[in-house]
Amino acid sequence: MALLLSRLSETAAFLIDKKKILSFRAYLPLKWRLLQYTHGYTKGVFTMSQPDENPETVSYKNPQALLSDCEKCFGLCCVALPYAASADFAKDKDAGQPCPNLQQDFRCGIHTGLRRQGFKGCTVFDCFGAGQKVSQVTYAGEDWRRVPGSAKQMFEVFPVMRQLHELLWYLSEALTLQPARSVHGELRTALDETERLTFLAPEALLELDVVAHRGKVNELLLRTSELVRADAASRRKGGTQRRKIGRGADLMGAKLKGADLSGANLRGAYLIAADLRNADLRGADLIGADFRDADLGGADLRGSLFLTQAQLNAAKGDARTKIPAALVHPSHWSAAGHGTQ
Questions:
Q1: In this structure, are 157 and 251 located in the same domain?
Q2: Which of 157, 243, 256, 308 holds its CA 20 to 30 A away from the CA of 269?
Q3: What is the pTM for the complete model shown?
Q4: pLDDT digits 0-9 by tens, 135-148
Q5: pLDDT (tens digit, 9 = 90+) per residue, 91-101?
Q6: Distance (Å) of CA 331 to CA 153, 181, 313, 314
């Protein structure tokens, strides 16, 4: 069932009703909305280049913009997305139906006990900041309870915005990778265009061909990955012959404790319940890799490519697990190791 949530962003563009309600926000100039977002609704969002900064190395990524801020969201993931009774959710819920645990103030009534009460999937999901963007920018802070006429449209906009914010996450990271500087110009153009799309009016967002846009961005991310991993391989001296792993590899339950997977292409790999304790994943391309219940105790993921908070949330780990600075150790990870070391 967790796959349903991860695939929603890929299919949302095809599951929309063309009859929309255009909010007042649609008439505001893009520039005004951008200033409103960066100076009004958040304390610090995209980090824009300053005159003394090198535009080739400045990243737009900022935790306030591309990480979930539930305090500024109208509980969109708790309403817009469906789920089914499974190991990840305790019961069924249709898209557009509020979760029974969602309170009037848009907070979760069982937030501290989600995993204990059968809602593990909620602790895994991450919207890349799309929730607060839709709530505070696209709909100017007018929630779906006070303006019920906008509810259906808002719930359809949310997964579209999530896709765009996910792309911003990847593009922003790619711009920090020096071995890929030859494509930084194209990456920045793609990032600027993706950011522009996030400020479109609701109707325009729902008419957007997100699949096509993702495809264009993905080509750039592939080239970025190849450049970075090739650079790492050229600097790797000697060592034993490593197992070659390709994108989309089926490694479910694989015994990879202590494995050297640095610089590996693990795009879309199935690592469900894999033993990755003490594994070296530095520089590995992890975009789309499924880490559900994988054991990352003591693993080193620093410098891994395109890792997301949702992937970490789906895995097991401990205090020894090394992760990129932009991410955080999930609260359910243990303070000690898992099993023998």
A1: no
A2: 157
A3: 0.80
A4: 999 999 999 999 99
A5: 999 999 999 99
A6: 33, 35, 9, 11
